[in-house]
Amino acid sequence: MRIYFSVMTIMLLFATVAYGQVDSTKVSVEVKIESSSDRTTEKEVYKRPVRVKTSWFSGFDLGFANFSDHTDYNSAEAQAFAPGSNTEWFDLKNGKSINVNIWVFQQKINLIHTHLNLKYALGLELNNYRYTNPIRFNKNQPYVSWDNTADRTYRKNKLAADYVNLPIMLNVNFGNPSNRFASNEKHSGCGVKVDKGKEWGFSAGISIAYLYSARNKTITSDEGKEKLKNNFNLNPWKLAYVGELNLGYFSIYGSYAFKSMFKNGLDMTPYTIGIRL
């Protein structure tokens, strides 16, 4: 844990220094003009790529949340956490187990000619795990129990785990930088066309997330909607490998945690995959 916080601190210090050195008012311009009395004038202006690019509320992710279950259900620890549990207890409705990420702040630092960049962001990571079986979470141990109530049916049964998330990645961009602006002029009129470079490449790194909210929400035939808020022995910190494949107008993202999302009892390593817009 101490090592990863040190890495994060070094990266953020580097970003701060780089940001302080940026002078966005300095640009180098080369103008090429061809004109005649009856011919369109074409002009291309090249602007030096911005060293630091900052975005606010610039996008969101929509994908699937799941976990790799490595729990030894024969162990005393697992049975104390969820008495009578087995591998089938925590089966998910995969199509309804959703991950949503909302990015409040993103920043990219150009390291080498816009093709190698340092990227980091701050946002909210929202995970909903929808269970197929009638399991209920409790505030104290045993944290999970099987609901044997006669004639009760479940319309919804989910565990929601929400985090504040800080990913830090190195980005490789094979696309053209967004630094060319072309304009066409004819007599006194002016038409402007902007050529924006799209990002094609990939990013990889780690993320550090803190759990700020967790709850078990159920909708049953007799109780209706019930919501229980608690941490359910979830780890407050989550470290994960993160990556994205940039495809111009959108990206495919994924994450895989270093270890189980629970402190003990259940060994479930969460992961996500989806589309970044």
UniProtKB/TrEMBL annotation:
Superkingdom of this protein's organism: Bacteria
Signal peptide region: 1-20
Keywords carried by this UniProt record: Signal
Protein name: Outer membrane protein beta-barrel domain-containing protein
Organism (species): Niabella digestorum
UniProt lineage: Bacteria, Pseudomonadati, Bacteroidota, Chitinophagia, Chitinophagales
